Every structure is written in structure tokens, then in C-alpha cells.
Amino acid sequence: MDVTVVGSGPNGLVAAYVCALAGLRVRVVESDEELGGGARSHSDLETGFVHDKCSSVHPTAAASPIFNAMRLEQDIKYVYPRASYAHVLDEGRAALAYRSLRDTTAEMSGDARRWRQTFDAGSGFGDSVVRASFLTPPLGPVGIPDKLRLALGAAARAAQPFRTIEADALWTGLRAHAPGAPRSIASALVAVSLGTLAHQKGWPFISGGSAQLTDALVKRLTELSVTFALGHTITDFRELSSRAVIYCGSPRGYVQAAGAQMPAKSRKRFERFRYGPSVVKIDATLDGAIPWTDKRLREAGTVHLGGTGPQIVASEQGVAQGQDSEEPFVLVTQASNFDPWRAPLGKGVFYAYAHVSSSAKPVEVSDRIAGLLESHAPGFRSLVRRWRITEPRQLAHQNLNYVDGDICTGEISLRQLVGRPVVAFNPWRGPVSGTYLGSAGTFPGPGTHGMAGWHAARTCLSDLFDRQMTLDLIEELQ
Ligand SMILES: Cc1cc2nc3c(=O)[nH]c(=O)nc-3n(C[C@H](O)[C@H](O)[C@H](O)COP(=O)(O)OP(=O)(O)OC[C@H]3O[C@@H](n4cnc5c(N)ncnc54)[C@H](O)[C@@H]3O)c2cc1C
């Protein structure tokens, strides 16, 4: 065997594909009994209803340079809601960020110009964001103009916030995608990236559920004779006989598997890597669409709740300090409003999660989520058929990469954006010879995009097998 890929999330499957396409013999080892990591869907609440287990909304997949080079859209279909995301304010009043920048700013009174300046995907800024977010590692000379553009955009907006309650809530909701640190520069970088993608491409669902992405990747791997070993957890690299290991588990798992082979200095640096807060996730089956007071919300794929910008900041800071708010930041997705394959006609699936501290009581959080929904969508409770709570410890148990329930596989801070998992010009080359790192715990970080797997595979091919892979070549080989 030439390469063992550990972990079968989107990053692991991409890494395996790139190595197999280069002509190597590749094996994927996965601790779960099922492939896909965060990109899985099940019909386990009720027959005919499809729930995304983790990843559901896919701006990073649609923008991913490797997925696009692989022409994945031949096998999966993205479904784009008219509004990428929305934010619910008091009494059901909402603000919406449509795919169209023009439609979005048309509904903004005082902040239209600022919004355009911040998220102007069309002016070449969108391409800069994609390159800086996915392609060029934060350190090093490559892509400096793109990185600067993104950093300056984020810094400018962080220093001079939006003026209206609506735009500020939309912006703060975006920042909350970096959990627990709503005022940090890291959260502003995340917000500018995600907010720009919302207008450049949109925030789509994958028709039929995110497992379709895994199925499409696995099909390609099978055609290239990649083999799979399920139900096996790698805890020691010495048990692997292949020439290279691409480790798509967490940085903590890497340290464990490296054991005594890891130089003490590197171990210390890896042990400084921190994990962030967790979530309580709810899945439900519904007797219809969510009856939002503001009817425009039916057009939004993702809906954020949690009050005004300052209220979100307070609750997110509370989570970081171990105190859960009565009104947490909640992210709701409504895939069945756009994708007929998610639920029987006239029915719906509900997916939501709230950021929580390690001391949160999941049942209380679940009640708060239901209460918030009822107040902004009266009649919501009566539509619920089945309701399931997934607690942080269950998330951690279901996927080793969600250390302590952290769905980002590592805190999103400036230090951990620049150095993920550690500060290095090439963060994908592991400190143990012949090993590479390719999970969400490595740059570019969380999200379904496969880019950490791409970078790790490319580095491995060049280091050990003298093969140079480029995105253009991948595209040509399709
Ligand atoms: C509730 C939730 C909601 C999310 N929502 C979104 C979303 O809407 N959009 C989005 O883009 N992202 C979302 N994410 C994040 C996204 O799922 C992840 O960032 C993404 O899946 C990371 O891909 P990965 O390949 O690095 O790891 P994962 O997909 O997490 O897969 C890692 C795999 O490696 C296996 N593994 C780990 N260690 C070992 C080992 N030692 N031996 C063998 N196998 C091992 C694990 O079992 C797992 O299958 C969400 C995550 C969660 C949990």
C-alpha cells in the first residue's frame, strides 16, 4: 500500500481521490461503520424524512476549488434558496441576505452602501475570498494581495460596525459561525468570507441530503480501486505499513497516534491547540413548513435566531465563559422548503443547533429552541411529529473529530486561523516523517470543502512520490 488515509470525512475522501488519481494504491481507514464523517444523512426519525447528521448548508462546498475541479456537480445537485440566510428580530421581524446583493441592499435603509462595500462578491472580491480562504496558507508570500484584501475588509468592518439593527444582526449572526468569540478579528474574517460567498454563489443544500456528496466521492474512489476498512480506529501510526499516512482525524488524535515518534517540541506545540464550545442539535419531523410570522423567512435556507447583535455577543461570550443564555444563538435550516427529496409532500424536516457551554443542560436548551421557534412562528410546536436532541457528548462519541463536541475541530481564533494546527509554512506536513494532516483541524479549517485533504495529498505526492498535482490537472483528468 502506498498511502493510508485515516478518516473518511470530505477531507479524507478528497485526499484518497487525489492520491489514487496520481496512480497510487490507497486505503481509507474509518473508525465508524459508515463512510462520510460530517457529510452523512439518515432517515432514522421517520421513513421518508431525510436528516443531515452534521453538515447541511454548503457554501464552502459550492465554492470549493477541489470539488469544482473534480466536477462534482455531475453527480450532485445543489439547491439554492433565494435567500442565503436571514436573522429573526423581535416580534418575528426579520432581515434577509439574498443571493442577490441588489435585492439585499434594496431592503436596507441605512447600511446599503456599507453592505455592498463589505460583501461585494462581483468585483473580483469573491475570487479573492475563495483564494485566501481555501488556497493560500496564511503564512508565506503566496496570495498576499488576496489575504490583505480579506483581512482589511474584516478589520474595517470590525472597527466600524453596521448602523441599523437589521444589518448589525445579520453581520453578528455571521460572526457567530466562529462560536464563542463574537468580537474577535477571527470571527470578522469568517463573517466576511461566508457573507461574500452568500452573494457570490449562495448557501445551497445538496439535493437528497449531504450524504449524496459522500456517495459521489465514494463512487469515484471505487472506480480508482481505493479500498476501505470500516470500524477501525487508528491509535498508533506504527500499525500502518504504507509509505505515507494522511491523517484526517483531529490534531489531538494525531498526537496520540504519533506517540513517542513525535519530537517533544512539536508535541508541545500541538498540545497548545485548543477546542471550542459545542452545540446541542435538534432534528425533527414536521407536518408542514415552519409558519414564520414574517413570511419572507420561508425563502431563507438558514435562519439565525438570538436577538440583536449585542444580544448575540452577550450570549456567545457567556458560552465561552461557561454560562448559557436564556436566548442562545440558534441556527435553523429548512432544507425541505427547497428540496422535495427531504420529506413527503406537505411535510418538512427541522434542523437546528444552539451554541452551548460545557455545563449546558441539553433538555433545557431544546425547550428554549422550541420556545424561540414558537414565538417567531406561532403554531410551530403543533407541527412537530418527532423531536430528537443530540447532546455534545453524543456528537463527540459519533465522530472522533468533534473533540468534546466541538463541531469545528478546533477553536476559531486568530492564532488558530494563522496556525492551524500549528504555525507553519506548510501546515499539512506532519512532524512525524511520512505523515500528513488533512482535517478541519488544519487550514483552511471547518466546513465541507475537502480543501485540507487536497493540500495534504498534494504535499504528500510531491514529498514522497515525486508527483506534482494541480487543480488544472485534476480538471483535465475528469
Ligand atoms: C452539527 C454539525 C453541523 C455542521 N454544519 C455544517 C454545515 O452546515 N456546513 C458545513 O460546511 N459544515 C458543517 N459542519 C462542519 C463539517 O461537518 C466539518 O467541518 C467537516 O465534515 C470536516 O470534514 P473532515 O473530513 O475534516 O472531518 P469529518 O467530516 O469530521 O470526518 C472525520 C472522520 O474521521 C474519522 N476518524 C477520526 N479519527 C480517526 C481515527 N483515529 N481512526 C479512524 N477514523 C478516524 C471520524 O470517525 C470521521 O468519520 C457541521 C458539523 C456538525 C457536527
From TrEMBL:
Transmembrane segments: none annotated. InterPro entries: FAD/NAD-bd_sf (IPR036188). Gene3D superfamilies: FAD/NAD(P)-binding domain. PANTHER family: DEHYDROGENASE-RELATED (PTHR10668:SF105), PHYTOENE DEHYDROGENASE (PTHR10668). This is Phytoene dehydrogenase-like protein. It comes from Microbacterium natoriense.
